[in-house]
Amino acid sequence: MERNLVPSNLIAAAFRSYATDYKWVLTAVPGENVTSGNTTYEKVPIGTEVEGMNILGLILFAMTFGIALRKLGPDGEQLIRFFSAFNDATMILVSWIMWRSACKEDWIIYLKHYREVLDILLS
């Protein structure tokens, strides 16, 4: 989990996450023959990348970036205003998409009922 706190690549953190996998490795006692039966299995941790967002790393980066911008004072205000305007524009786009999808669903329902009525009238 600690390795996910600081992602090595922010873009990759949006798609991949670090996970620890374990592999059983056959180990023999030094100087002994493996066929004599004096072997043990050892659980060895192996780090791998898995599919999935590294939310923890992204949130920690965003918080640290925000704190750093606040520490800049007036110089950081310009970037904070930019991100605030970017957020507002994104929210407007999301509201348009939601409105459009609601209209599309109404249109699909209307067409379904129109076809049923048309079938009744024509039969």
UniProtKB/TrEMBL annotation:
GO terms for molecular function: L-alanine transmembrane transporter activity; L-aspartate transmembrane transporter activity; L-serine transmembrane transporter activity; L-threonine transmembrane transporter activity; symporter activity. GO terms for cellular component: plasma membrane. The keyword Transmembrane helix applies. One of its GO terms (biological process) is L-glutamate transmembrane transport. Keywords: Membrane, Symport, Transmembrane, Transmembrane helix, Transport. Its main location: membrane. The keyword Transport applies. It is found in: Membrane. It is a multi-pass membrane protein. It comes from the Eukaryota. Belongs to the dicarboxylate/amino acid:cation symporter (DAACS) (TC 2.A.23) family. PANTHER family: NEUTRAL AMINO ACID TRANSPORTER A, SODIUM/DICARBOXYLATE SYMPORTER-RELATED. This is Amino acid transporter. It comes from Scyliorhinus torazame (Cloudy catshark). The lineage of its organism: Eukaryota, Metazoa, Chordata, Craniata, Vertebrata.
